[in-house]
Protein backbone atom coordinates (compact mmCIF):
# COMPACT_ATOMS: atom_id res chain seq x y z
CA UNK A 1 0.00 0.00 0.00
CA UNK A 2 2.90 2.31 -0.73
CA UNK A 3 0.67 4.73 -2.62
CA UNK A 4 -1.70 5.14 0.30
CA UNK A 5 -1.73 8.58 1.84
CA UNK A 6 -0.58 9.11 5.41
CA UNK A 7 -3.71 9.04 7.53
CA UNK A 8 -3.25 8.45 11.27
CA UNK A 9 -5.09 5.25 12.24
CA UNK A 10 -6.53 7.09 15.22
CA UNK A 11 -8.45 9.42 12.93
CA UNK A 12 -12.20 8.82 13.47
CA UNK A 13 -12.77 8.62 9.72
CA UNK A 14 -9.61 6.60 9.01
CA UNK A 15 -11.27 3.98 6.80
CA UNK A 16 -13.30 6.50 4.93
CA UNK A 17 -10.27 8.70 4.19
CA UNK A 18 -8.22 5.72 3.07
CA UNK A 19 -11.05 4.64 0.79
CA UNK A 20 -11.33 8.10 -0.73
CA UNK A 21 -7.64 8.21 -1.34
CA UNK A 22 -7.70 4.83 -3.10
CA UNK A 23 -10.50 5.98 -5.40
CA UNK A 24 -8.63 9.20 -6.16
CA UNK A 25 -5.46 7.24 -6.88
CA UNK A 26 -7.55 4.94 -9.09
CA UNK A 27 -8.66 7.90 -11.16
CA UNK A 28 -5.05 9.11 -11.44
CA UNK A 29 -3.92 5.66 -12.60
CA UNK A 30 -6.63 5.44 -15.25
CA UNK A 31 -8.43 2.61 -13.43
CA UNK A 32 -11.46 4.43 -12.06
CA UNK A 33 -13.77 6.70 -14.04
CA UNK A 34 -14.71 10.16 -12.82
CA UNK A 35 -18.28 8.89 -12.34
CA UNK A 36 -16.71 6.42 -9.95
CA UNK A 37 -15.94 9.30 -7.60
CA UNK A 38 -19.62 10.16 -7.46
CA UNK A 39 -20.65 6.56 -6.93
CA UNK A 40 -18.22 6.36 -4.00
CA UNK A 41 -19.77 9.48 -2.46
CA UNK A 42 -23.22 7.92 -2.64
CA UNK A 43 -21.94 4.76 -1.05
CA UNK A 44 -20.26 6.64 1.78
CA UNK A 45 -23.48 8.33 2.76
CA UNK A 46 -25.22 4.97 3.15
CA UNK A 47 -22.22 3.51 4.96
CA UNK A 48 -22.25 6.37 7.46
CA UNK A 49 -25.90 5.66 8.21
CA UNK A 50 -25.20 1.94 8.59
CA UNK A 51 -22.57 2.75 11.19
CA UNK A 52 -19.66 1.77 8.90
CA UNK A 53 -19.91 -1.84 10.02
CA UNK A 54 -21.03 -5.19 8.69
CA UNK A 55 -24.52 -5.72 10.06
CA UNK A 56 -25.60 -9.30 10.86
CA UNK A 57 -27.87 -9.64 7.83
CA UNK A 58 -24.96 -8.56 5.58
CA UNK A 59 -22.73 -11.15 7.20
CA UNK A 60 -25.33 -13.83 6.41
CA UNK A 61 -25.47 -12.53 2.83
CA UNK A 62 -21.68 -12.75 2.63
CA UNK A 63 -21.81 -16.35 3.83
CA UNK A 64 -24.53 -17.20 1.29
CA UNK A 65 -22.49 -15.50 -1.45
CA UNK A 66 -19.46 -17.61 -0.51
CA UNK A 67 -21.61 -20.73 -0.69
CA UNK A 68 -22.96 -19.81 -4.14
CA UNK A 69 -19.45 -19.12 -5.45
CA UNK A 70 -18.16 -22.45 -4.13
CA UNK A 71 -21.08 -24.53 -5.41
CA UNK A 72 -21.29 -22.88 -8.85
CA UNK A 73 -20.49 -24.71 -12.08
CA UNK A 74 -18.76 -21.55 -13.29
CA UNK A 75 -18.51 -18.51 -11.04
CA UNK A 76 -17.21 -15.17 -12.28
CA UNK A 77 -16.26 -12.12 -10.23
CA UNK A 78 -16.93 -8.99 -12.24
CA UNK A 79 -14.46 -6.16 -11.58
CA UNK A 80 -15.11 -2.51 -12.32
CA UNK A 81 -13.00 0.59 -11.75
CA UNK A 82 -14.14 1.22 -8.17
CA UNK A 83 -13.78 -2.40 -7.11
CA UNK A 84 -10.29 -2.58 -8.62
CA UNK A 85 -9.17 0.63 -6.94
CA UNK A 86 -10.52 -0.37 -3.52
CA UNK A 87 -9.87 -4.11 -3.15
CA UNK A 88 -7.58 -5.43 -5.91
CA UNK A 89 -5.66 -7.98 -3.82
CA UNK A 90 -8.76 -9.03 -1.92
CA UNK A 91 -10.61 -9.80 -5.18
CA UNK A 92 -7.69 -11.90 -6.42
CA UNK A 93 -7.70 -13.81 -3.14
CA UNK A 94 -11.46 -14.40 -3.28
CA UNK A 95 -11.12 -15.75 -6.82
CA UNK A 96 -8.35 -18.11 -5.68
CA UNK A 97 -10.22 -19.43 -2.68
CA UNK A 98 -13.50 -20.02 -4.56
CA UNK A 99 -12.09 -21.04 -7.96
CA UNK A 100 -13.97 -18.18 -9.64
CA UNK A 101 -12.74 -16.31 -12.72
CA UNK A 102 -12.01 -12.58 -12.63
CA UNK A 103 -13.48 -10.52 -15.46
CA UNK A 104 -13.05 -6.80 -15.98
CA UNK A 105 -16.45 -5.42 -16.87
CA UNK A 106 -17.00 -1.69 -17.20
CA UNK A 107 -20.07 0.48 -17.50
CA UNK A 108 -18.04 3.19 -19.23
CA UNK A 109 -15.97 0.86 -21.30
CA UNK A 110 -12.67 1.90 -22.86
CA UNK A 111 -9.94 -0.50 -23.97
CA UNK A 112 -7.34 1.57 -22.08
CA UNK A 113 -9.19 1.32 -18.80
CA UNK A 114 -9.82 -2.42 -19.22
CA UNK A 115 -6.12 -2.97 -19.90
CA UNK A 116 -5.12 -0.81 -16.93
CA UNK A 117 -7.43 -2.72 -14.57
CA UNK A 118 -6.31 -6.12 -15.87
CA UNK A 119 -2.70 -5.06 -15.36
CA UNK A 120 -3.45 -3.79 -11.85
CA UNK A 121 -5.07 -7.14 -10.94
CA UNK A 122 -2.04 -8.98 -12.34
CA UNK A 123 0.21 -6.77 -10.18
CA UNK A 124 -1.86 -8.03 -7.26
CA UNK A 125 -1.30 -11.66 -8.16
CA UNK A 126 -4.01 -12.53 -10.71
CA UNK A 127 -2.79 -15.00 -13.30
CA UNK A 128 -5.70 -14.94 -15.71
CA UNK A 129 -7.95 -11.90 -16.17
CA UNK A 130 -10.92 -12.03 -18.52
CA UNK A 131 -12.80 -9.14 -20.11
CA UNK A 132 -10.45 -8.30 -22.97
CA UNK A 133 -12.01 -10.59 -25.58
CA UNK A 134 -15.54 -9.15 -25.32
CA UNK A 135 -16.95 -11.71 -27.76
CA UNK A 136 -20.21 -12.25 -25.86
CA UNK A 137 -23.27 -10.01 -25.41
CA UNK A 138 -25.86 -9.47 -22.70
CA UNK A 139 -29.22 -9.31 -24.53
CA UNK A 140 -31.29 -6.16 -24.05
CA UNK A 141 -28.47 -3.66 -23.58
CA UNK A 142 -26.93 -1.27 -26.05
CA UNK A 143 -23.73 -2.33 -27.76
CA UNK A 144 -20.98 -1.02 -25.47
CA UNK A 145 -22.80 -1.85 -22.24
CA UNK A 146 -23.59 -5.37 -23.44
CA UNK A 147 -20.04 -6.63 -23.96
CA UNK A 148 -18.78 -9.59 -21.92
CA UNK A 149 -16.44 -12.51 -22.54
CA UNK A 150 -18.31 -15.50 -23.98
CA UNK A 151 -16.26 -17.90 -21.87
CA UNK A 152 -16.49 -15.61 -18.80
CA UNK A 153 -19.67 -13.85 -17.66
CA UNK A 154 -21.36 -15.13 -20.85
CA UNK A 155 -20.92 -18.71 -19.67
CA UNK A 156 -21.25 -18.20 -15.90
CA UNK A 157 -24.11 -19.52 -13.77
CA UNK A 158 -23.10 -17.38 -10.77
CA UNK A 159 -21.73 -13.83 -10.99
CA UNK A 160 -20.52 -11.58 -8.20
CA UNK A 161 -21.12 -8.03 -9.35
CA UNK A 162 -19.89 -5.47 -6.86
CA UNK A 163 -21.38 -2.02 -7.49
CA UNK A 164 -23.11 -3.04 -10.71
CA UNK A 165 -25.28 -0.66 -12.68
CA UNK A 166 -29.02 -1.33 -12.30
CA UNK A 167 -29.76 -1.94 -16.00
CA UNK A 168 -27.00 -4.44 -16.35
CA UNK A 169 -27.90 -6.17 -13.12
CA UNK A 170 -31.45 -6.60 -14.42
CA UNK A 171 -30.28 -7.88 -17.81
CA UNK A 172 -27.92 -10.41 -16.22
CA UNK A 173 -30.77 -11.63 -14.04
CA UNK A 174 -32.94 -12.09 -17.13
CA UNK A 175 -30.19 -14.28 -18.60
CA UNK A 176 -30.87 -16.63 -15.69
CA UNK A 177 -27.65 -15.97 -13.84
CA UNK A 178 -27.54 -16.04 -10.07
CA UNK A 179 -26.39 -12.58 -9.07
CA UNK A 180 -24.49 -11.72 -5.94
CA UNK A 181 -24.45 -7.92 -5.61
CA UNK A 182 -22.46 -5.69 -3.27
CA UNK A 183 -24.25 -2.36 -2.91
CA UNK A 184 -24.64 -0.08 0.09
CA UNK A 185 -28.04 1.11 -1.12
CA UNK A 186 -30.60 -1.61 -0.31
CA UNK A 187 -33.11 0.12 -2.61
CA UNK A 188 -30.83 0.26 -5.63
CA UNK A 189 -32.16 -1.82 -8.51
CA UNK A 190 -28.98 -3.88 -8.47
CA UNK A 191 -29.68 -4.91 -4.88
CA UNK A 192 -33.35 -5.52 -5.67
CA UNK A 193 -32.72 -7.97 -8.51
CA UNK A 194 -29.92 -9.84 -6.72
CA UNK A 195 -30.34 -13.38 -5.40
CA UNK A 196 -27.91 -12.23 -2.71
CA UNK A 197 -27.83 -8.49 -1.99
CA UNK A 198 -24.83 -7.70 0.20
CA UNK A 199 -25.54 -4.32 1.78
CA UNK A 200 -22.04 -3.57 3.02
CA UNK A 201 -18.98 -1.61 1.97
CA UNK A 202 -17.00 -3.56 -0.61
CA UNK A 203 -13.86 -3.06 1.50
CA UNK A 204 -15.44 -5.08 4.32
CA UNK A 205 -17.58 -7.36 2.16
CA UNK A 206 -14.95 -8.97 -0.06
CA UNK A 207 -12.55 -10.13 2.70
CA UNK A 208 -15.52 -11.43 4.68
CA UNK A 209 -16.87 -13.46 1.74
CA UNK A 210 -13.37 -14.96 1.44
CA UNK A 211 -13.32 -15.84 5.12
CA UNK A 212 -16.69 -17.58 4.83
CA UNK A 213 -15.50 -19.38 1.70
CA UNK A 214 -12.48 -20.74 3.59
CA UNK A 215 -14.85 -21.99 6.25
CA UNK A 216 -17.36 -23.54 3.82
CA UNK A 217 -14.89 -25.04 1.37
CA UNK A 218 -15.36 -28.77 0.91
CA UNK A 219 -18.57 -28.88 2.94
CA UNK A 220 -21.51 -29.16 0.53
CA UNK A 221 -23.98 -29.54 3.38
CA UNK A 222 -22.88 -26.29 5.07
CA UNK A 223 -22.98 -24.52 1.70
CA UNK A 224 -26.54 -25.65 1.14
CA UNK A 225 -27.51 -24.49 4.64
CA UNK A 226 -25.98 -21.04 4.07
CA UNK A 227 -27.93 -20.65 0.81
CA UNK A 228 -31.23 -22.02 2.08
CA UNK A 229 -31.08 -20.07 5.32
CA UNK A 230 -30.65 -16.75 3.53
CA UNK A 231 -33.62 -14.59 2.61
CA UNK A 232 -32.91 -11.68 0.24
CA UNK A 233 -36.06 -9.69 1.01
CA UNK A 234 -35.56 -9.76 4.74
CA UNK A 235 -31.85 -8.88 4.36
CA UNK A 236 -32.74 -5.80 2.30
CA UNK A 237 -35.49 -4.84 4.74
CA UNK A 238 -33.13 -5.25 7.68
CA UNK A 239 -30.49 -3.03 6.03
CA UNK A 240 -33.07 -0.38 5.25
CA UNK A 241 -34.38 -0.45 8.80
CA UNK A 242 -30.84 -0.07 10.16
CA UNK A 243 -30.17 2.88 7.85
CA UNK A 244 -33.42 4.60 8.79
CA UNK A 245 -33.44 3.89 12.50
CA UNK A 246 -29.81 3.33 13.46
CA UNK A 247 -28.13 5.42 16.14
CA UNK A 248 -25.50 7.74 14.77
CA UNK A 249 -22.41 7.89 16.91
P1 LIG B 1 -29.14 2.18 -10.42
O1 LIG B 1 -30.55 2.32 -9.93
O2 LIG B 1 -29.00 2.21 -11.88
O3 LIG B 1 -28.50 0.99 -9.80
P2 LIG B 1 -27.53 3.86 -8.65
O4 LIG B 1 -28.33 4.80 -7.85
O5 LIG B 1 -27.13 2.64 -7.98
O6 LIG B 1 -28.34 3.49 -9.95
P3 LIG B 1 -24.72 4.50 -9.18
O7 LIG B 1 -24.16 5.80 -8.68
O8 LIG B 1 -24.22 4.00 -10.46
O9 LIG B 1 -26.29 4.64 -9.25
O10 LIG B 1 -24.48 3.39 -8.14
C1 LIG B 1 -23.44 3.30 -7.28
C2 LIG B 1 -23.93 2.38 -6.19
O11 LIG B 1 -22.80 1.79 -5.60
C3 LIG B 1 -24.69 3.13 -5.11
O12 LIG B 1 -25.85 2.43 -4.78
C4 LIG B 1 -23.72 3.12 -3.91
O13 LIG B 1 -24.39 3.00 -2.69
C5 LIG B 1 -22.88 1.89 -4.19
N1 LIG B 1 -21.51 2.00 -3.68
C6 LIG B 1 -20.61 2.97 -3.93
N2 LIG B 1 -19.44 2.75 -3.30
C7 LIG B 1 -19.59 1.59 -2.62
C8 LIG B 1 -18.73 0.80 -1.79
N3 LIG B 1 -17.48 1.20 -1.50
N4 LIG B 1 -19.22 -0.35 -1.30
C9 LIG B 1 -20.49 -0.76 -1.58
N5 LIG B 1 -21.34 -0.06 -2.35
C10 LIG B 1 -20.92 1.10 -2.87
MG1 LIG C 1 -27.01 0.79 -8.54
UniProtKB/TrEMBL annotation:
Pathway: Cofactor biosynthesis; coenzyme A biosynthesis. Gene3D superfamilies: Phosphopantoate/pantothenate synthetase. It catalyses: (R)-4-phosphopantoate + beta-alanine + ATP = (R)-4'-phosphopantothenate + AMP + diphosphate + H(+). One of its GO terms (molecular function) is ATP binding. Its EC number is 6.3.2.36. GO terms for biological process: coenzyme A biosynthetic process. Keywords: ATP-binding, Coenzyme A biosynthesis, Ligase, Nucleotide-binding. ATP binds at residues 20, 42, 183-185, 189-190, 201-202. It comes from the Archaea. Belongs to the archaeal phosphopantothenate synthetase family. Homodimer. NCBIfam families: phpantohe_syn_Arch (NF041123), PRK13761.1 (NF010324). Catalyzes the condensation of (R)-4-phosphopantoate and beta-alanine to 4'-phosphopantothenate in the CoA biosynthesis pathway. HAMAP family: PPS (MF_02224). This is 4-phosphopantoate--beta-alanine ligase. It comes from Haloarcula salina.
Amino acid sequence: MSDDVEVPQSHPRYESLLTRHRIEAGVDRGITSRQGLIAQGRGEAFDYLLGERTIDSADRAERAAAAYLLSADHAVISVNGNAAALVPGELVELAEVTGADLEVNLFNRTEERIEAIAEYLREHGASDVKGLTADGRIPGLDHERAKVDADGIGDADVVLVPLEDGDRAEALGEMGKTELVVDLNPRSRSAEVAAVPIVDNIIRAVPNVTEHARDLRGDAEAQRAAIEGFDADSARADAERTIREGDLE
